[in-house]
Specification:
Elements: E1 3-7, E2 10-13, E3 18-25, E4 33-39, E5 46-52, E6 59-60, E7 68-73, E8 78-83, E9 92-99, E10 116-117, E11 121-126
Parallel strand pairs: 2-11
Antiparallel strand pairs: 1-3, 3-8, 4-5, 4-9, 5-6, 7-8, 9-10, 9-11
Length: 127
């Protein structure tokens, strides 16, 4: 069982930066997928960044490539999402999630495949 608690959201101007944190309680294993989704008003929850807990090649949704970075600190059991060069269209509720895996497989883009979720943190980008 893993519990996730996000923080770090807020109001930021266009072009600004934020770092979201997601503290996990419980054990995350090497092949587990750690991910960040976001959900804008009236839209479906969408995968924007993912990697294995072990690390390696990260997945990024096209609209955030080159601007967002997913990382983790194993000692702190924390997952991060660095958001740079923010745009108004980045406004959404951001969720961290974990998809437990017994063996390596690429991240699944479907939210239904993720077993553990944080409560979400609002990011609002104003012009």
């Amino acid at each position: 069982q893993v519990q996730l608690v996000e923080s770090g959201g807020g109001l930021v101007q266009t072009g600004g930066s934020l770092r979201l944190s997601c503290v996990a309680s419980g054990t995350i294993y090497s092949n587990d997928i750690i991910a960040w989704f976001r959900q804008a008003a009236g839209e479906e929850r969408k995968l924007i960044a993912a990697n294995t807990w072990r690390g390696g090649h990260s997945y990024y949704e096209d609209s955030v490539k080159g601007r967002f970075t997913i990382s983790r600190d194993a000692a702190k059991n924390t997952i991060y999402l660095q958001l740079n060069s923010l745009k108004r269209e980045d406004t959404a509720v951001y969720y961290c999630a974990v998809d437990p895996r017994l063996r390596y497989a690429p991240p699944d883009v479907r939210a239904a495949e993720y077993d553990y979720w944080g409560q979400g943190t609002q990011v609002t980008v104003s012009s």
